[in-house]
User: What shape does this take?
Amino acid sequence: MSGPDAVMPVLPGLLVIEQLHQGHHVNVYDVWSEERGCRCVAKTLRPDRPRDEKSVRDLMREGRLLSRLTHPHIVRLYEAVRAPVPVVLLETLSGHTLASLLDEHDCLPVQDVLHLGLHLTSAIGYLHRQGWLHLDLKPSNVIADGGRAKLIDLSIARRPGRRRPGIGTPGYLSPEQALGHPLGPAADVWGIGGLLYEAITGDPAVPDTKSRSSVSSSSRSHERRRTTTGGAVTIVAPGSLPRRRRVPTEVRRLIDACLTLDPAARPTIPEMAATLAAALDSTPVPFADALATAACPDGTRKPAQKPAR
Assistant: This one.
């Protein structure tokens, strides 16, 4: 995605091949590591902006966290260095983000969604056992790589507790994230539920909003209001998962339960994993393999096209 005017960073020992993503403070690059003799993914500060020490601290914090994590469904860290240039170096994954798969196919086959859910509950359950919350579960942060879903961004992962209102991505915030209430594992349960909802329907569970402290949908009348510094905040539960012939009833109920407003009423990660595992057929299709036919859960089909690499 590098444009002709893109400013490429100078990263010692790394040959920058292409810019993959541009964030507010951090860019992501496809690079060649001379030391490792392979391609890697490098996260570093934007070279077109002044050095921001807070961004450096945040980047290094993500690197330290990843250095303590080893899980098949979480991206692997190679190294994190602060000087001479702050860089977090990650493994290269050959697959595509869930966001790009949904753009290409509208929705995923149900068995793929079940595998996706099991991979996510495995990764998030592991993260929770290490004492961390992810807090930014969205399609662009999940990659399907070789039949395996992997989380690729832990930049805003935090310990449980109270955080500023709106931490995360608009449209993917749990109600407690939107309101600045204390955060616990249930916030990530909401996140997984939202991803499964979107993977099945092709639409976000909560429409994106202009306000970072708003979770709203017209699908239900359940509404809670409170006043914050920024004015009135409206929290409305997402609509129930549309009925699809091939979505098991227990899975539909599970996703609806994940997206309930009350964190205490949501299922736990182990309960989610048990329900998803029970719903799988005896001969499940590997995750993403069924996308060759691009069958939607309601029985319709969209011609599959090879994603651009």
